[in-house]
Design a protein that fits this description.
homodimer, alpha+beta, four-stranded antiparallel β-sheet, 25% strand, DNA-binding
DNA sequence: AACCGTTTTTGATCTAGATCAAAAGAAACC
DNA sequence: GGTTTCTTTTGATCTAGATCAAAAACGGTT
């Protein structure tokens, strides 16, 4: 999820256009309903991304240090985002505004290519999650989360993780307790 | 899902590199386990894309006339695909080989940009499907399928549609019968 | 260390949809 | 046109996980 910054030279030429931003624990970074205006490179901290469906908050992504955060549905299309992002820890980011990024896409050599590859990564990640929901049991999804993101278990409230995994908090709690 | 061909000039400059290919009903177009070598612009016909998970075939995409088909997980990354694609009707496509497309990415102005936008579209579609699985009932998924793809109901065997919708064939049949 | 709000666990019950099994309809084939 | 094979429907039962409800555990705060 961070290949857009996979090239050191490219990152260097972006840095001069970036701002540093700080967010307190609990602070909303971008709100659903507005057009996403910035892309963030997270230096330190942890963010959850969620949306509302059938009256519930569904957590669809966690982004932490050294990862990239953006409202993909909005930032690249210009439509209002359905996602809200919120800092779960004190968080520090470099941010790049949409207008700067558009300028960069037009003027920095190789940027479209990195944009394309960034999208391919995001897509692959989503395919994984889709398949896990369709063909794995709650237990299996938990196991696979533990393999890939075990560090988050101690940094994120259980309810957010359970919604990320597509199950109720009670179910996740029970799965966890019968482990040992 | 066809924005890569959204630009007439671009399509024109691609055409000279393309082949015409025909597939009989039931014919396998690309097989899981190999690296996807071609991207297809479907002129006529219908294709299902599926993969195996827990011993079952799961249908994840239908592509029909005027749409684009490719093993996104493989074609752009060079890894073997997990997807098999099969013609459900006699199907006619323009195809463009990976090596040609790479050449095009390097030599045709604006191609990276179209690749990026193509990925954004594919991503948006997948987000829709993911959300529908997580937050909608079987009935609601069926309803939404009927709104967006009602034509497919008469062209595709029920079992493929039910697996696309993430439910058993019996369930889909029952939902359909209680409609009227 | 006692209080209060939040998060997690535990228990009891319920239900959408899966699974198993078989019948009924459609297509394909000789 | 009748037999075989594939597809869809119908019926009966079962289960993973949801829902509802309450108790326990965990911080912070004064």
């Amino acid at each position: 999820m961070n290949s857009i910054f996979g090239s050191p030279e490219l990152l260097e030429s972006l840095k001069e256009h970036m701002q540093i931003e700080q967010f307190a624990k609990g602070e909303i970074i971008e709100q659903a309903g507005v057009v996403s205006k910035r892309i963030f490179f997270i230096k330190k901290g942890l963010i959850r991304v969620f949306y509302r469906a059938s009256g519930k908050e569904i957590c669809c992504h966690f982004a932490k240090e050294n990862e990239v955060l953006t409202g993909i549905d909005s930032f690249f299309t210009g439509k209002p985002t359905i996602y809200t992002s919120q800092a779960l820890e004190p968080t520090e980011c470099y941010s790049l505004s949409k207008s700067k990024l558009d300028w960069v896409f037009d003027h920095v050599e190789g940027m479209d290519r990195y944009g394309r590859i960034f999208m391919i990564d995001a897509y692959s990640e989503l395919v994984e999650r889709y398949n896990s929901i369709v063909s794995m049991s709650a237990q299996e999804r938990y196991d696979s989360f533990m393999v890939n993101h075990s560090d988050l278990l101690n940094r994120v409230p259980l309810g957010y993780i359970s919604s990320y995994l597509g199950m109720q908090q009670e179910t996740l709690s029970r799965i966890r307790s019968r482990q040992n």
